Amino acid sequence: MRYAYAITSALLLGGVASSLTLHQPLGAQQAQTAAAAPRGAPQSFADLAARLQPAVVNISTTQRVQVRSANPFAGTPFADLFGGGEAGRPVTRQAQSLGSGFIISADGYIVTNNHVVAPGREGAVVETITVTLPDRREFKARLIGRDLASDLAVLKIDAANMPFVQFGDSTRTRVGDWVLAIGNPFGLGGTVTAGIVSALHRNTGQGGAYDRYIQTDASINQGNSGGPMFDLNGNVIGINTAIFSPSGGNVGIGFAIPAEQAKPVIDQLMKGGRVKRGYLGVQIQPIDETIAESLGLEKNRGELIAGVEPGQAAERAGIRQGDVVVSVGGEPVTPDQTLSYLVSNSAIGAKVPIELLRDGRRMTVTVTVGERPPEEQLAQRFGGEDGQFGNEENDEDTQAAAQAAIGLAVQPLTPAIARQVGAPANTRGLVIGGIDPSSDAATKGLQRGDIIIAINRRPAASLDDVRAAVAEAKAAERGSVLLLVQRGANPPRYIGVRIKK
Question: What enzyme class is recorded for this protein (predicted)?
């Protein structure tokens, strides 16, 4: 995934295309064109573009960044003369960013992506935000509010009688509808592209309550971030935010934040408030094919609780690590409608029934929805370091792993090993000492030094626990087991591992 950031300059190389036209009577040619055009397809987007372009703006920032100098003359008498001082001394540099936005009120409120106006790197400071209108007028903008979770921001310029556009109802958008994207790709200024809605509620795997996009094949490139996606009525139904691209350029897969998600956030930011969201206090992970097999579940149904925060709403309601949540307030949990999305859009303080599966039993608990902490606080709470475990794997470890049913050689976790791998002192489990490179465990990315806390939702304290879990899975005709794995000080994650045949 790439955000549609802009670059300060670009060299576009064009070629000459040739085509072969079969001559036929004009009437027949017109009849073919009419038959091929779907109902509602415009003859031209020109009138619509002319009406909407005045409200779409270019946004640029200037930033101050401190970087470490690399002075090749450091340590010599010429250090100050040619190299700017000693190596490693902080040097202040200027940086820029470019993006798009759109005016939503006559008095100059502007919507864009947060990443367009955010510092480009750690330690950077945004000094100015400049808004450039299509008629080349420039305004200094104030940041009214920003929201990291939704990647949205609201700016204000001191102006009156500005052209503006309005949000539409994205819930009525259908796959195949025409859309128009206007923005600032590669810093080129107002550029109009057209396409169709390729998919709705697209989950890109990034996680969170806002991983639910409109996908389009309208050309979106670096610098389109924050620009509007219009329907044919001229209403904003999405905010262009990201592209999927192996090359960095447009390949026909772009993503926009739906208006139904963006507008409530924008309304709160315009009032100068912080966006409040529902919160359970759990770590969540989707259920892939192997995990579903290890639990005897259907694919694409429910999400797995990888961890429960002490004292938060989920723990108070009795939700446990390893539970599978299948519905929230009667709404099913699916890849298109995730647990994060359903909970975040629940009213704070509301009592919501949550249906879950535990050890094969279906049960319902009632949760009083809490308030989500700020994103910075969550990042500090769940950030961790990957641990290192002794030296590289030896031949004995590899041979033991090759003989093990799940391709892993394990040993009890001691306090000394816990310190080596950077795990909390109270961690209990089995540490991985060797991995069979041909096993499914290796394919899933398990590493030497990872800690298996539980297997098939039971504590893993000895090799006998692993053997018993494998035997139980085979007796139930399941081809995989479910491991709860912790790496360093990071939160534990569930991983389904196939049993070797």
Answer: hydrolase
- Please choose, from the candidates 387, 388, 390, 404, the residue with its C-alpha nearest in 3D space to the C-alpha of residue 455: 404
Give the CB-side neighbour count of residue 109, counting CA atoms within 13 A.
15
In angstroms, the CA 235 to CA 256 distance is 14
pLDDT band (50, 70, 90) for residue 22 = very low
Please indicate if the annotation marks 480 as binding a ligand: no
Domains of the chain (ranges, CATH numbers): 50-156 (2.40.10.10), 170-270 (2.40.10.10), 278-382 (2.30.42.10), 395-498 (2.30.42.10)
Q: Residue 374 has what pLDDT?
A: 79
* Per-residue tokens: 250: 């447009």
Model confidence at 67: pLDDT above 90: no
pLDDT single digits (tens) 250-307: 788 999 999 999 999 999 999 887 888 999 999 888 888 888 888 888 777 899 998 8
Extract the tokens encoding 379.
């990042």
Catalytic residue among 151, 231, 397, 465: 151
Q: Which residues contact 416 (CB under 8 A, 6 or more apart)?
A: none
**Nearest CA among 467, 489, 469 for reference residue 478:** 469
Q: Which of 170, 225, 245, 294 is catalytic?
A: 225
The residue behind tokens 């709470």 is 381
Nearest to 452 by CA among 416, 501, 497, 498: 497
Does 490 belong to an annotated binding site?
Answer: no
225 a known binding residue? yes
Instruction: Give the DSSP per-residue string, 122-162.
Output: TT-EEEEEEEE-TT--EEE-EEEEEETTTTEEEEE-S-SS-
Q: Is 115 annotated as a binding residue?
A: yes
Annotated catalytic residue within 60, 97, 100, 115: 115
Reply yes or no on whether 105 is catalytic: no
Quote the strand ranges of 244-342, DSSP E: 254-258, 278-279, 282-286, 303-308, 324-328, 331-332
344 annotated as a binding-site residue: no
Distances (CA, A) of 471 to 278, 388, 464: 41, 31, 10
pLDDT at residue 414, as a whole number: 85
115 as an active site residue: the answer is yes
| Sequential DSSP letters for 208-247 | STT--EEEE-S---TT-TT-EEE-TTS-EEEEEEEE--SS
